[in-house]
Amino acid sequence: MFASFFPKPKLFLWSAIAWSALCIALWYMFAGDLGSSLSLGGLFGYGYPAELPPTADEAQKALFVATTDSASTIWVYQYMILCMTAFTAFWGWAAPHRWFWWSVAVSAVIIFITWFQVQLDVLINNWFGTFYDLIQRALGTPRSVSLGEYYGELATFATIALTYITVAVFSEFIVSHYIFRWRTAMNEYYTANWQKLRQIEGASQRVQEDTMRFATIMERLGVKFIESLMTLVAFIPILWALSAFVKELPLIGEVSQALVFVAIIWSIFGTGLLALAGIRLPGLEFRNQRVEAAYRKELVLGEDDAVRAQPPTLGALFTNVRENYFRLYFNYLYFNVFRFGYLQASVLVAYVALGPTLVAGAITLGVMQQIVRAFGQVQSSFQFLVSSWTTIVELISIYKRLQAFEAVLHSEPLSGIELEVNAPPAPAE
User: Fold this and answer.
1) Strand partners, 248
2) CA angle 131, 136, 138 (to 5 degrees)
């Protein structure tokens, strides 16, 4: 599944994690301060401003801060490109691979685009604060806000949204091609070893359908996982800063940086709860694929052989299908009780935590919107496993089915479920 597409998969993955950690550490240690001397942003109008004189007024100081923030953002992107280019070049030199440009280079491009999308989310979150403060001022003091200001804020959002849409469409196009290349690599790898793999039950289905489903799920789940990690990196500092407005929590009292801890604790609770409730689902999904494959295989054989696919045989095989589906339905019944209950309760968590602060009138409407949205982003990122659990269950079952190929190719024993017999009764004479 991975060796067909990535060079030395385990080493590649761990080196990517280690390199990312090193680059982040270097950024906070000293690289972030090198922008004024190394950044190329000045070539595009995003250079670092000159130091302000002591006599600078408030308007000049505000402009200085805004210009510095823009220049720093451009320097972050340059630093990321430099780090990703170095990592990509190293693997191109150290482990040449047929799929190098897609598995390594395009992976870096996807990560960069995902980070850019997260930064657009940050801009939208900031816009919500400004816009709702404007609304509060307009409602509190009639005629204090002009139509020009109001529509100007809407135009700002439209600009950010248009950029987001353009990047999102491009990202979806790139990821779709990336995932199909991955499926192509798996397909070529398995078909090259077909004579060894053909004896496994449902081998044809695993090569054709399971590789397709694996690629499709990875397209959705993989990008979402990366986006969740990057959202945490971007929004935890924002939520940490906004937590300064929240001095106390209901029933608990004063807690420093309360919102961050509420998001983490609530997400860990939900992840553990649903993991426990859905612990049997991967095995049932895996077994479901086996009984479906046995039923499908008998029908296919019956197309060319009149002796096969007799009603008693098909009835016995479909009984296996029905029984497994009923077990799945029952397990999903109580799993969904916990899942939907938890997700609905999550909607209120931020408002419950903000209760004492809102009643005390300690924040504006704009700050409240920023807090609620940032809290939601952090919470949803921590809840990646919760919101994606059913998809993860499906991916695990497919992974187990394809892992049987790996076991055969490496002369390893098959798993317990693979050894179960789904043989139909002998055809009637």
Assistant:
1) 254
2) 90
Query: How far, in Å, CA of 377 to CA of 381, rounded?
Result: 6
Q: Each residue of 247-280: b (16+ CB within 10 Å) or e?
A: ebbeeeeebeebbbebbeebbeebbeebeebbee
Token pair, residue 383, equals 């809840």
Give the count of alpha carbons within 13 A of 247, CB side only. Answer: 8
CB 281 within 8 A of CB 330: no
d(CA 249, CA 256): 10
Note the pLDDT of residue 416.
Answer: 55
- CA pair distance 381, 229, nearest whole angstrom: 7
Question: Do residues 229 and 212 lie in contact, with contact meaning Cβ atoms separated by under 8 Å?
Answer: no
DSSP string, 373-411: HHHHHHHHHHTHHHHTHHHHHHHHHHHHHHHHHHHHHTT
**Contact indicator for 84, 108 with CB cutoff of 8 Å:** yes
Cα–Cα nearest to 204, from 192, 215, 189, 194: 194
Tally of CB atoms within 10 A around 27: 17
Token pair for 419: 């050894």
C-alpha distance from residue 108 to each of 59, 146, 178 (Å): 40, 45, 12
Are the beta carbons of 204 and 332 closer than 8 angstroms?
no
Q: What is the pLDDT of residue 424?
A: 47
Per-residue pLDDT averaged across 242-256, rounded?
A: 75
Please give the model's pTM, rounded to 2 decimal places: 0.72
The overall average pLDDT reported for the chain is 81
Phi-psi group of 349: left, alpha or beta (phi > 0 → left; psi -120 to 50 → alpha; rest → beta): alpha
Instruction: Give the sign of the dihedral formed by CA 411, CA 413, CA 418, CA 419.
Output: positive
Q: Which of 324, 318, 301, 309 is nearest to 397 (CA)?
A: 324
Structure tokens at 364: 């504006």
CB neighbours of 157 closer than 8 A, spacing ≥ 6? 124, 127, 131
Span 23-46, pLDDT tens digits: 988 988 888 888 888 888 878 777
| CB distance 281 to 331 below 8 Å | yes
Task: Give the Cβ contact number of residue 115 at 10 Å.
Answer: 20
